């Protein structure tokens, strides 16, 4: 039965990637300085169109035109936070899906409050590591290793379900197994390689990819999110076959995502339903 459930996901993931390639959704990215390059190139290699636009002066004109919005608080500042909130408000007003990456949410009171304020603006998906999701679910600052997680993804299943139920978003927890839940259903994406953790901004990049997948299937955000996580992981697995270390894996990851075909996706995607 488990194998049957898993086999259903390959075609679903391929359908999402194919739609992104065919529709080339425009994704507004308000993200951190560290991740801009990899985020933009990940979206481009998947077939989406990135727009790294974060000015409050442009947002009222631009955000209504996008297919999805991606907000990442990695290098959060007083100057950027109002732009993030404005973009989220406009996305919600115009019924555009938007995705939040609450980087190091529990590291400081300023950062936690900023993330909670953004969550009040109804993101479609929240994607973070286990420590970030636990901090948000508990609304508390706690021990953190900067942007690294102090917990395994499986430690945050209940926190993720609680957060999803309280805010209405699909919640994804990255880890050795990526957990995705809407508060009721829980699925696990098991693709990827450990070396991906040695490349800065892979988490940021996959959250942007989630935004692209959700842009083309907003009514099935859980399926789109799980598909994006698995597809990115498959690209990492294929890239690792040619890589010699983190730097070359970064290059091969982007190339592999661009070159993924139906056979690779359907045969390699590992998503299971709990």
From TrEMBL:
<comment type="pathway">
    <text>Cofactor biosynthesis; thiamine diphosphate biosynthesis; 4-methyl-5-(2-phosphoethyl)-thiazole from 5-(2-hydroxyethyl)-4-methylthiazole: step 1/1.</text>
</comment>
<protein>
    <recommendedName>
        <fullName>Hydroxyethylthiazole kinase</fullName>
        <ecNumber>2.7.1.50</ecNumber>
    </recommendedName>
</protein>
<dbReference type="Pfam" id="PF02110">
    <property type="entry name" value="HK"/>
</dbReference>
<dbReference type="InterPro" id="IPR000417">
    <property type="entry name" value="Hyethyz_kinase"/>
</dbReference>
<dbReference type="GO" id="GO:0009229">
    <property type="term" value="P:thiamine diphosphate biosynthetic process"/>
</dbReference>
<keyword id="KW-0067">ATP-binding</keyword>
<dbReference type="GO" id="GO:0004417">
    <property type="term" value="F:hydroxyethylthiazole kinase activity"/>
</dbReference>
<keyword id="KW-0479">Metal-binding</keyword>
<comment type="function">
    <text>Thiazole kinase involved in thiamine salvage pathway.</text>
</comment>
<keyword id="KW-0784">Thiamine biosynthesis</keyword>
<keyword id="KW-0418">Kinase</keyword>
<dbReference type="GO" id="GO:0036172">
    <property type="term" value="P:thiamine salvage"/>
</dbReference>
<comment type="similarity">
    <text>Belongs to the Thz kinase family.</text>
</comment>
<dbReference type="GO" id="GO:0000287">
    <property type="term" value="F:magnesium ion binding"/>
</dbReference>
<keyword id="KW-0808">Transferase</keyword>
<dbReference type="InterPro" id="IPR029056">
    <property type="entry name" value="Ribokinase-like"/>
</dbReference>
<keyword id="KW-0547">Nucleotide-binding</keyword>
<dbReference type="GO" id="GO:0005524">
    <property type="term" value="F:ATP binding"/>
</dbReference>
<keyword id="KW-0460">Magnesium</keyword>
